[in-house]
Amino acid sequence: MKKTIRDYDLKGKKVIIRVDFNVPMKDSMITDDNRIKESLETIKYAVLHEAKVILLSHLGRIKTEEDKNGKSLRPVAVRLSELLEKPILFVYETRGKRVEEAVANMKNGDIVLLENTRFEDVDGKKESHSDAELGKYWAELGDIYINDAFGTSHREHASNVGVASRLPNGIGFLIEKELKYLEPAINDPEQPFTVILGGSKVNDKIGVIENLVHKADFILIGGGMAYTFLKAQGKEIGSSLCDDENLQFCKEILSSYCDKIILPVDSLCTKSLDSKDGIIKTDFDSDDIGVDIGPKTVELFKKYLDISKTIIWNGPVGIFEEPAFSEGTKRICEILKQNHGITILGGGDTASAAINFGYKEFMTHISTGGGASLEMLEGKDLPGISIITER
Question: Can you tell me the distance from the alpha carbon of 197 to that of 315, in angstroms, rounded to the nearest whole number?
């Protein structure tokens, strides 16, 4: 068991908390503040225990100076201040004299948020490549390091592994919650255990399938990746998305686990992705594009989900962002709402769909990290968590 923020006396200590404020923004306005809200418990705990809180986070991908436009964490500082009902000191730099002065002048309970850590990627990807000098610099700002950014824990960055390797460390409440639900569901699930996999490409889910096919009772496959599996069965898929490079993998996994891999039996098809309507089909014409699972498939999937005591879902089963193609994903949400077992959703699009459709409160756990949860499903260690000291 990893050390947590509770394991330390925080009073008067400079506590660096790596948070995940990688929120969607448009015209420098936050369009979804869920990730900020998920960080509040850890930040409030540190403030309540009279720590001097230094927050580090990235926002988006930064490769050039031009990429910095619209990627400042300043709007996040404003929103965080509103949510905490407390002033936040935002420093428009990632290091230097202003950063050092801001930290030196902190009083117990103060919060300082530094600028986007990936601004350091413009000159040699110092953040993303875990530059030793940068990690050392940030570590010297604090006394204790707490990782509460599950969404970046599958990456070895200067702001997580680089700092954690140099300070007494622990995890925050968000990561503690992620591990509480994900670890037992993946490693010791209550049976029957069903996995729902969606998304576009088979390649993105090969590691998950290889790891979980031995543990799961059933793997239900939807989304764009389903059409590669259907083609591997020799079925006509029209002009639907197909990951041809992984057709052989699909053939082999279907041959070995034909009783576990459950594929769609009908699909919502359209002639153009620009279209706002479609028709349910069991057989494809050459110009049909599959965009969602059909009602017969929903009922087929329901048969397996209704008897399941542990369900993990990663990847929407249709193009849910388009209302006309979202019905299958909504129906799966509704089925999981009625389930009395453990229902866990991976982050990314799956989380976005469930939250936007109003099903957040009905799920046992919705992960905050798409890539991190995916790598856990693949059975991989997460560097940002592995570096944390055991109790």
Answer: 5
Q: Which long-range contacts (CB under 8 A, 24 or more apart) does 229-235 make?
A: 229/202, 229/254, 229/261, 229/263, 230/263, 230/264, 233/263, 235/284
Q: How far is 313 from 339, CA to CA, in rounded Å?
A: 13
pTM for the full predicted model: 0.91
The reply to whether 371 belongs to the active site is yes
Is residue 118 flagged as an active site residue? no
Q: Rounded to 10 degrees, what is the CA torsion of 125, 130, 134, 140?
A: 160
> Does 294 participate in catalysis according to the annotation?
no
pLDDT of amino acid 235: 95
* Catalytic, out of 166, 371, 379, 380: 371
Give the total residue count for the chain: 391
Question: What rounded mean pLDDT belongs to the chain?
Answer: 96
| Domain identity same for 69 and 165 | yes
The overall longest dimension of the chain from CA atoms, in Å, is: 69
Alpha-carbon distance of 339 to 305, in angstroms, equals 8
- The encoded tokens of residue 14 equal 């400079």
Q: Is 35 a catalytic residue?
A: yes
Catalytic residue among 201, 309, 360, 380: 201
Q: Which of 13, 14, 18, 35 is catalytic?
A: 35
Please tell me the distance from the alpha carbon of residue 111 to that of residue 95, in angstroms, as a whole number. 16
Structure tokens at 80: 């965080």
> Which residues, 6 or more positions from 200, have their beta carbon under 8 angstroms from its beta carbon?
223, 224, 225, 241
Residue 159 and residue 186 share a domain: no
pLDDT at 32: 87
The pLDDT, as a whole number, for residue 27 is 85
Q: Structural domain of residue 10, as residue ranges?
A: 5-174
Catalytic residue among 142, 222, 348, 370: 348
Which tens digit of pLDDT belongs to each residue from 248-276? 999 999 999 999 999 999 999 999 998 88
- Provide the CATH number for the domain around residue 267: 3.40.50.1260
Based on the fold, state whether residues 168 and 209 are members of the same structural domain: no
Same-domain check for residues 32 and 143: yes
